[in-house]
Specification:
277 residues, alpha/beta, Rossmann fold, 2 domains, six-stranded parallel sheet, 10 helices, globular, binds NADP nicotinamide-adenine-dinucleotide phosphate
Length: 277
């Protein structure tokens, strides 16, 4: 293997330890509320992990499980009651929401000052004008992983495959804010390989297992694999790891790369919101 592995699990552990240190200076306990609608098993598992993370850094956490048939209005009212609670500093509404509920309308109602996911339009708007405050968890985790390489982001050509508001679009903006030259690719991009071969930093957020093959990667590139695809009961990334690791300079594994960093950034955002930063 020629590429250096970017170990997200280890970096996340270090970040949790830094958070515990910062907590010693606080006179109160940061609190995170997670809202789950219905009982989707994958969501239940993700929430359990988030609760465990909160325990590791001694945050208060609570899960609000609401019935799948709840109306959008009632869900919004619930979010608004959390907005008012002084012991809750971060609010996260677990996606996906049941059909018939407009997720944007719900995220709109999380006050930007408690938006632990950084997905409220106010926080995304601040990102757009390079006034980064609370930023979306997965993109922020990706930036930390790229910084772990020790390579400068400024002046590099970054190619983001995917333009979702959750990952692709904000990570491209965060790279642009750090003076990378950014290309966005998506399902309508003509000749994707020509684009990816130019990437010093390649972020794959496609949702298609082993979509990125070695021939698509520039030798020495930083390759960030965001994808989590469930294949035969295991998590597989968007990058064909075994062959791409032979050509990339740095690469994230799946699992153990972006996933743990996303969760660490949720803690970091909650702390940031708690101390009003
Ligand atoms: P998404 O909303 O489905 O977006 C996928 C993006 O990929 C879209 O922009 C789509 O283009 C593009 N795309 C699809 N097929 C393509 C193709 N053949 N060529 C080029 N682009 C193509 O997914 P997402 O929410 O951004 O998530 C992406 C992946 O990351 C998923 O596997 C998800 O599970 C994973 N994820 C992981 C974490 C983590 O913590 N590790 C967090 C969030 C998401 P169009 O816009 O044209 O449709």
């Amino acid at each position: 293997m020629s590429a250096e592995l970017l170990n997200g699990s280890r970096l996340a552990k270090r970040i949790r330890s830094q958070i515990r240190q910062k907590l010693k200076k606080l006179t109160f306990t940061p609190g995170l509320a997670v809202v789950q609608v219905g009982d989707d098993p994958a969501s239940t598992l993700y929430i359990k992990h988030k609760q465990r993370d909160c325990e590791k850094v001694h945050f208060h956490s609570e899960v609000h499980r609401l019935p799948v048939e709840i109306s959008q209005d009632s869900l919004i009212k619930h979010v608004e009651t959390l907005n008012e609670r002084s012991d809750i500093h971060g609010i996260l509404v677990q996606m996906p929401l049941p059909e018939g509920i407009d997720k944007e309308a719900v995220i709109d109602k999380i006050t930007p000052h408690k938006d632990a996911d950084g997905l409220n339009p106010v926080n995304l708007g601040n990102l757009l004008i390079n006034r980064e405050g609370v930023t979306p968890c997965t993109p922020t985790g990706i930036i930390h992983l790229i910084e772990l390489t020790g390579e400068k982001i400024e002046g590099k050509h970054a190619v983001c495959i995917g333009r979702s508001p959750l990952v692709g679009k904000p990570v491209g903006l965060m790279l642009l804010n750090r003076n990378a030259t950014v290309t966005y690719c998506h399902s309508r991009t003509a000749d994707l390989t020509t684009q990816t071969q130019e990437a010093d930093i390649l972020v794959a957020a496609v949702g298609r297992s082993e979509f990125i093959t070695a021939d698509m990667v520039k030798p020495g590139a930083v390759v960030i694999d965001v994808g989590i695809n469930h294949v035969d009961g295991r998590a597989v990334g968007d990058v064909k790891f075994e062959e791409v690791k032979e050509i990339a300079g740095f690469i994230t594994p799946v699992p153990g790369g972006v996933g743990p960093m996303t969760r660490a950034m949720l803690l970091e955002n909650t702390l940031k919101l708690a101390i009003g930063g």
